[in-house]
Automatic annotation (TrEMBL):
<dbReference type="Pfam" id="PF13239">
    <property type="entry name" value="2TM"/>
</dbReference>
<dbReference type="InterPro" id="IPR025698">
    <property type="entry name" value="2TM_dom"/>
</dbReference>
<keyword id="KW-0812">Transmembrane</keyword>
<protein>
    <recommendedName>
        <fullName>2TM domain-containing protein</fullName>
    </recommendedName>
</protein>
<feature type="transmembrane region" description="Helical">
    <location>
        <begin position="21"/>
        <end position="39"/>
    </location>
</feature>
<feature type="transmembrane region" description="Helical">
    <location>
        <begin position="51"/>
        <end position="68"/>
    </location>
</feature>
<keyword id="KW-1133">Transmembrane helix</keyword>
<feature type="domain" description="2TM">
    <location>
        <begin position="10"/>
        <end position="68"/>
    </location>
</feature>
<keyword id="KW-0472">Membrane</keyword>
Length: 74
């Protein structure tokens, strides 16, 4: 019987490419969020929370790819 785990190849994603994609999606999406806020009810500044939370995630992604890249886990 064939081992099913051997049928699928696991591809390694380039971490720098993954960060660049994350940054591109951030740069393209955040202005859309602010435009939606600007064109709708402006009573609550909700894009500020969305943008800042996503920016923190982007910061940690950057740190993981470029700053702490030499640390290996067992």
């Amino acid at each position: 019987m064939k081992n099913l785990a051997n049928e699928y190849k696991v591809t390694q994603v380039n971490p720098q490419k993954g960060f660049r994609i994350h940054l591109l999606v951030f740069v393209l999406t955040v202005p859309v969020l602010w435009a939606v806020w600007f064109l709708t009810d402006k009573t609550h500044l909700w894009p500020l929370w969305q943008s800042s939370a996503w920016a923190v995630g982007l910061l940690f992604h950057y740190l993981g790819v470029y700053v702490f890249k030499n640390r290996k886990t067992n």
